[in-house]
Amino acid sequence: MREVFLSDDFDVEETSSKINGLMSKWSIRFLDINGPSWVVYNQDMEVKYLFFFEVDFNDIDTRIKLEDLKLNVIHHIESLKDDTTYRDNLINSVFID
Length: 97
Prior knowledge:
Blueprint: E1 2-7, H1 12-23, E2 28-34, E3 37-42, E4 47-54, H2 60-79, E5 85-89
Parallel strand pairs: 1-4, 2-5
Antiparallel strand pairs: 2-3, 3-4
């Protein structure tokens, strides 16, 4: 498993490209978006990548960037027309003070 840690200054387009590139691989099946942890699973449901956003969920600009990133990635996954899927739980009261 590879871990990628991202701070508040992450670039939405660059990070979208990175995640979309992974999701396009035939061996990848599922993206679990759970607040700061975005976990990429392969066809056997083994964790391949963990993107961990070390960000302040109370900061509105950061949350907008995360929403933009999420929408970019979800749009890409839905365009793949295969069994690749996702679960979205980006904003949860647990992550917001």
